[in-house]
UniProtKB/TrEMBL annotation:
Descriptive protein name: 3-methyl-2-oxobutanoate hydroxymethyltransferase
Entry's EC annotation: 2.1.2.11
UniProt xrefs under Pfam families: Pantoate_transf
Co-factor requirement: Mg(2+)
Function: Catalyzes the reversible reaction in which hydroxymethyl group from 5,10-methylenetetrahydrofolate is transferred onto alpha-ketoisovalerate to form ketopantoate.
Family: Belongs to the PanB family.
Free-text remark on how the cofactor is bound: Binds 1 Mg(2+) ion per subunit.
Compartments, as annotated in UniProt: Cytoplasm
Assigned keywords, A-Z: Cytoplasm, Magnesium, Metal-binding, Methyltransferase, Pantothenate biosynthesis, Transferase
GO cellular component: cytoplasm
Amino acid sequence: MIKISDLRKDKKKNKLVMLTCYDFTFASLFEKEKENIDMILVGDSLANVIKGEDSTVKTTLEDIIYHTKAVRKGAPSIFTVADMPFMSYQISVEEAVRNAGRLISEAGANAVKLEGGRDFSEHVKAITRAGIPVMGHLGLTHQWINVFGSYNVRGKSSDESDKIREDAKILQECGAFSIVLECVPEKLASNISQDLEIPTIGIGAGKEVDGQVLVLQDMLGMNDNKFKFLRKYSQIGEITRNAIKEYSKDVKEKSFPSKKESF
Ligand code: KIV
C-alpha cells in the first residue's frame, strides 16, 4: 500500500493511478490488480453512478460510509480515499473533523477528500491535525453546481486561474497530502504541479500532473458519457447487453439450464 510519507519524494518518479470504486465485487478485482493501482476513491460521484441522481449533492455521509465499507472488504490492501459529501464539512470545522473521523474509523478509509480551497483551510488543518490525511479538490467542484450553474472547464480566465493556483498552495500549507485538479486547462494544471511538493491528480487536466483519476463506470464504457477527457478502456455496457440478450434467448428456447446445469 502506498505511504503518504513517500508521496512527496516519489512525486517526480511514478505517475499515480487512481480510480473510483463503490462496491465489493469491483474492489475485489482491483485487489487482484493491486500492482497496477495506487489509490481507490469512493467518490461522491456515486450519486450519479450508483443512485441514478443528477448531482453529487445527493450523496450523503451514510452513502459514503456504506460503500467505503464494501470497498475495503474487497480491496483491503489498496489505499482508499473516501469523499466528504455535500454538507458533511461545509457547516463547521467541528462537524468536518467529526465526519472525517467516521469515514476513517467506521468506514475504514485511509484518507478523505474534500472540495474547495482557501474557504476550507481551517477545515483541512483541523482534520489533518486530528490524524486524518486530506486530499484537496480544485477546479470543477461539483458540490458547487447550484452556485456555478454549469460543469464547464474552470480556470480559463486569468483571475480564476490565479485563484485556483493560490488555493493549491494554501491547501498544501494547510497539510493536504495531494490535490485533485478537475477540468482545468493543461497549462494551469502543469503550473500547479510544478508549484507544489505534494502530488496532483488530474481528471480533465492534461498529462502534466502527477497522476490521473477516472470514474470506473465511465472508463469501462458502462454508460453513454462522452467527456472530452474520457478514454474508454472497455465496452462493458455492450458486453452486458449482449449477455442479457443471449441469456434471454436461452431461457425462452429452453436451452438453459441444460442437463449438466441441473441437479
Ligand atoms: O466523486 C468523484 O468521482 C470525484 C472524481 C471525479 C475525482 O471526485
